[in-house]
Amino acid sequence: MITYKLVNDTELNTVCSITKKIDGTEVMSIPLVDDNTDYQEYLEWLAEGNTPEEAD
Amino acid sequence: MAINLNAKTTGVGGLETSADNSGEINIQSGGTTVMNVTSSGVAVTGSFSQNGAVYSTQPTFRNLIINGDMQIAQRGTSATGLTNGDTGYHTVDRWKFQHTGTVTYAVTMSQDTDVPTGQGFSNSVKYDITTAQSSLSAGDSLLFSHYFEGQMLQHLKKGTANAESVTLSFWVKSNKTGTYTTELLDADNSRGISKSYTIDSADTWEKKSLTFAGDTTGAFVNDNNTSLALIWWLGAGTTFTSGTLATSWEATNNANRVSSSNVNLADSTSNYINITGIQLEVGSTATDFENLPYDVQLARCQRYYYHLTDDTSSELVGAGYWGTTTSARGAVYFPVTMRTSPSLSYSSGSHFKALIPGVAFATSTAIAIYKNSEASSLLSITTSGGTTGQGTHLEFYSSPATTTYLGFSAEL
After folding, report:
1. Distance from CA of B406 to the nearest CA of A (A)
2. pTM
3. Which of A41, B152, B319, B333 to pair with B54, CA 20 to 30 A apart?
């Protein structure tokens, strides 16, 4: 199952990237950039009503 | 009309001339014009050479395809068990394994060394069926595809009265003879055109050439996103085959996308297909495959994917600083500007380490993008033992060197 977790910029405490997990294993770090197809997939996942894990 | 200067090749030979007042001269050999001179210039038919060096009469970079000879495979040379949910890039750069529906077949996709003899190729791409699906459900398919940015296609003048036709040529070999379909799919305007071809002889390399008419409707958006897909349909359910093949551009209608006679390559574990020498060029003629130097082809691929691996054990990732005592950062500069800010894939979050100056290295438990652009990426590893603000650099953790990597993807 695919899930996502937010990653914070530790200095500004804002989200700087998103970690993609497959069956709980981290496999990819995704920038918040509209042209990035992995970010587009994340937005589709959100639109399906899913919620990412909060950042640590 | 023109003045002809003909070197005769019959009888006793000699120079034959004709005269008119057109101001045009044809230089002929045996009645065949090899050079035509007019007030607007000189046209040469055939090759043109100087001191034995033959000049190409074809424009460079005419091939719209990147890595059409399959020589670049940054991610690896083989991916096994590709099946439902595995749509994506796995082996040869820029070439996508793709499916629709909920498929049960499995494919090994590889960079192969089987190539047509004497054509100058070193590699082909191979789909080898390892789990068969004898019958595809209506929405199922097996695809091999290439995606193009809109800004790479503006010279096709799509959506204008001067829209250019394009010709696709490629070499193909399969045990499974029969009808196959290729499609150009306009993602900006939801339009498409398909052409079928046949593989005539089993286990034999054949060259195919297909010309697609220009489309006067629907311009490609001039940006860095997908405008066009080139798709090989290697199997398709009735959702895609039940209509009449769209051999002219039309609004996308799934039923018309694939020939009703299209084979199902996935129907037996004996089946395979190899493809190489793929060229898509403006015009209605398939010219010789345009060979690019390896470094040029690699750089073109790296616009979409950059693979950094631990070739020598503990190879440098990038210099940086300790952001906190548990977070070390290092910058990676990409060799070419990427299409967009890339995603980062990696072998494992624990495959990296950061220098603690004067002490040792601290190994990672996770890695993530901290800052990113089309030109560089600042990576952050989660670790321990650092001093905030102190300089550092990130390295690959030496074991296992052969499978440790970072992959930056800006694919379409």
Report:
1. 10
2. 0.91
3. B152
